[in-house]
Amino acid sequence: MTRLSGGLIDRSRPLNFTFNGISYTGFEGDTLASALLANGVQLMGRSFKYHRPRGVFAAGSEEPNAMVELRTGARQEPNTRATVTELFEGLTARSQNHMGPLHRDFLAVNDLLSPFFAAGFYYKTFMWPKAFWEKLYEPAIRKAAGLGSLSMLPDPDDYDKGFLHCDLLVIGAGAAGLAAALAAGRAGAEVILADEDFALGGRLVMEGDLLDEALATGWVATVKAELESLPNVRIMTRTTVFGVYDHGIFGAVERVSDHLPTPGDKVRQTLWRITAKRTVLAAGATERHMPFADNDRPGVMLAGAMRAYANRWAASPVKRDDDAIAIFTNGDDGHRTALDLIAKGAKVLGVIDTRETAPKFGDYEVFAGATVTGTKGRLGLTSIEITRGGRSEWHSVGALGIAGGWNPNVHLASHHRGRPVWNERLLAFVPSPDGPKGLIPAGAAAGKGGTAEALEDGMAAAIKALAELEISAAEISLPKAENASAEQVAFWHVPGQKRAWVDFQNDVTVKDIALAHRENMTPVEHLKRWTTLGMATDQGKTSNVSALAVMAELTGKSIPETGTTMFRPPYTGVSLAVLGGGDSGPLFRPRRLTPTHHWAAAQGAEFVEVGPWMRAQYFPRKGEMQWRESVDREVLAVRAGVGLCDVTTLGKIDVQGPDAGEFLNRIYANMMGTLKVGKVRYGLMLREDGHAYDDGTCARMGEDHYVVTTTTANAGLVYRQMEFAHQCLWPDLDVQLISTTDAWAQIAVAGPKSRALLSRIVDDFDLSNEAFPFMSCAALTICNGLRARLFRISFSGELAYELAVPARYGHALMARLMEMGADLGVTPYGTEALAVLRIEKGHAAGAELNGQTTAQMLGLGKMVSVKKDSIGAVMSRREGLAADTRRLVGFRSADPQTQIMAGSHLFPEGAEQNMATDQGWITSACYSPHMKGYIALGLLEDGAARLGEVVVAANPLEGQAMKLEVVSAHFVDPEGGRLRD
Amino acid sequence: MIEPVTDLAPITALGGTVPRSEIFGALTLSENAGLALASLALRKDQEMPKPFGLPLPEVGKAVSMGGLAAFWTGRGQWMIEAAGRGETDFAAALKAEVPKACVSEQTDGWVAFDIASTQGAAPIEALMARLVNLDSTGFGPGCATRTGLEHMSVFVIRRSEDRLTVMGMRTFADALWHALAVTARRLDD
Asked: Are residues A496 and A464 in the same domain?
């Protein structure tokens, strides 16, 4: 045990956990990393490429090394940072990325082969033979590299989402963030204070600094209590604001129950979209290191992290209490760590300061003008080599802290392409003034990392932000604090022949950067991609600036001339599950159920997804072994008797007003204004570019009242297009539109006995051919008084009607029609039979209205009226479209029992099959029980003039080809007598 | 009790013979199958009518009077609500009241879920925060808007501090109930 005194852990609440199967005990308030350190565990994993032993390097979300597989079973999660994993009772973690035990990883052989694994090696190696890449090289590399492993089991937990709004979003609850939130909270503004940590305070609770001459924890607790008492302030801990999006919207993930053994009734995480009028970015800063030879051994870590473990978690970084700790620094900040460790009773070897005139702040040795030039220790640090004035000597240490300066966390300020700005005094990039609108960086994130200046800056940022919102905020009384000395010199890495790691997680060394430079990959974007620096799960939080500095040195340019890396969301990894926001499987997206859905389900219907709709596909009967038997039966029942199909999904748009006729004349390619009241007309709409858009019927229910129907797929699109035309193209027309798709249940009653069936349910309505001929419509009542609409239209080619009633009666109407039509052989049919019926009749549907076809191609060219203008009419006459000779025709196979494949392309018999000889394609195909064989529709060059000719339908990709006879598209009743009788 | 107009038996949007209602802690979700709806759109240059004496609300607002209510849906457009008249031809009644305007039957175009809280505004606002991107501080009693809810288009009407109505397309009723119920249940946990 290397537990120190003090800290913010609750020693009365011990927690048991296991790491690689070994049991340990920590305390409430520990992270997995702090608990492992306190148990003397330094070795926590293996590196990505070379399988080098690695230990914890940081104390926060920037951690590159200490990644574990957390939990077991379906909840096993790879690449979890031990530094941000709160300890809970029964926690189970395993190290990852090794073959065999952690301390004896067989893949550590990669480290010996490292000369071959330099930057760009994937790009240069395994190039030959080409065929080996997919089957051999890539799987082998993936197995050896990569990080943790997935359980491959479905995620058992729930996720939620939500929306929040505030005047001021404060990101980070350290000194600046707390001061900002308190100033804004007292001013009465709606405030959200978010922090990725589970405790408030940020660095305040990790440093030994005093506020009002007491430990900062007291002030933090007081502020927390006051903020909690303010109804206008929402404190969100365990919440990472990961991205800035348009219009002041921030993405944030709240880890609701990641700190619990299982979520229980709670969700695991919640995705919040926070709309903030103003934002204070108080995200703090991340310490950087200074690469030197063999700097990646367990026990080497950031000095600030060492301080945090000692102060907050009472954990020492060494394996044994009597191991000494050394600090390597280029400024005064490293000395703070030495002082804090000494105050905690740890054994400190001294501070190795790169400055010749290094100061000394306490009772410890200072190695001035010195650097660390080497380390030893196979699985953990045992000694370091200190070099000064050309003389080197080895010292025994159990841990080494590195203090290379602090980089403001500019990430979120860069999300709207705000380019960070180099500050020579701070030797760091600070947020761009051109960052996201309304976002004000403050405190360490703005380069003001001293405690006193961070408190001041946070408060000032809040007051400034609220002033822009015309909310007056007063200054608050801040605690007495000091600014620790930030004196430092520009020292970036220790030159040497051995490997010195820059990016630990992706195993990128100074040598790799030098190689990238030699190969002219000097722009920072090329450097990143060539070496993979900064592209691991930590996104290079501890390495990017150091890498730039190394490259700057190699090119002889300054750091800002060398470039800066742009940050993109997310700030830290976000699971796809939480982005999905909750439901999965069949509930993943909302489904629309037709008014007869429950009836169809009770009949045992098979359903098919049609966009969001669930439609009955067919109604299998007992004894029917496969779907075609059911479909064939349903088709024949319609042709011989009467069938029922729910067609509610077709779009219905109510068009009213004195100019409704004129409006529809402009929407439809054909004339609609001349339609008489009580009549229905088939209508065709074109796109602006002249191609066919949608078809359907238009019924004139009254003088100023039309009902337009659309295809199921285009219901929303057509309505949107009509609204656009109404509001933007012709606002002068007195017309009003509203969708009524859901309001009416609509049932197709089709077949020669449909009139007989309907006559049994209508109330005093003359259905005779004379009184209600083909293409009539009427409002009427049925079933003793229910208002309904009846349309005599046919998709099947048979005598047919569509009957609409208020949707709540659709279910009962279907049952009633079935009951009343039993003696007529009434049969429900689904979308499959519907499709067969329309192919037999030669009606175009979605496969023909695919956005590539014109009215002419569909045989509807004459519908484009020349007596008026309409959307797309002029463009449909342009040469490129008008000259297209492809026409919709029918096809029959020479062998009627051989299936025709939709999508096959059409070629002349005997011709070579290529793009030049391609004459069209099969759009729809089915087995026709009426024709007792396979039939198809398709578009063929000069199709109308080629009836009787034989063509080849081919799929050259699969080597398929079959001969087809070109026939009329109307396989059933080409004269159209049936639907008019 | 309004006499049935037909011998066909209606079902509710959720497929039941009676409207569904379920309690989740402080929140009660109820399917309102009795609500009649008709859209009212003014013709050009038509003066603002007061159907049944109901003053039509401003942009983003809702009003109610007795069993009648209205909320704004677009420029010169409102949805008129009539409690307990879902099985009547309410559109015809409205048209008779404002013969010049465009009226469309909308009763079964929508499903209305009423949400009532026994603990004031907080549970209602917590539910809203999970489901719709609306700032509840600016969406007090008398506000109504159209917005997205789990990829569905809905109307949200704040009837009072502790009552909210969410209207979705009727064919999405199951999916909308699921979204509301799951969220309400989680708030109760």
From this structure: no
